[in-house]
User: Fold this.
Amino acid sequence: MLAGAIRRAVVAGVDLIQIREKDLEARALSECVHAAVAAARGAATRILVNDRLDVALATGAAGVHLGESSLPLGAVSEWRRETGTALMIGVSRHSLESCLQAEREGADYILFGPVFATPSKDRFGPPQGLERLARVCESVKLPVLAIGGVTEANAGSCIAAGAVGIAAIRLFQEVEDLVAVVSRLRQLNSSA
Assistant:
């Protein structure tokens, strides 16, 4: 099922696919990421691995995505600088202060949220809202993607607030015509 969803997302032209299979052991995760990297080969889609720098490197993934309790961003950024590795480093952040810190420590992009209410992000507290999203987007130079309760109906308000894009699970996995959804979302960005 996951492999099929990844192939559909690549065909639809999704920019980034984050492999978030936190429950998989290293070998199974590596096999999953390797298959995703192979599916994206030749496409503009980049594969990122949640938390596991080792798996990202071993599989040729484009990058790693670090949560606030993951490997220290500063250490990963320093390692990347010292080795000259072109690995993309993304982070999830939930406050303006932590976004500013991520920028100082060398992140390439920020997922900020939850912007709207969503059960999967309840543990991070109440929704941040569009006003906080706009403040983060104005305050950092990094690309900011909105996450948390983002739907096709409210994605435009995230772009209007300054986000360069959106991140979502249900929006991309639970639609009939992913190509059409991605196309409509791209139109939001080009009209902003």
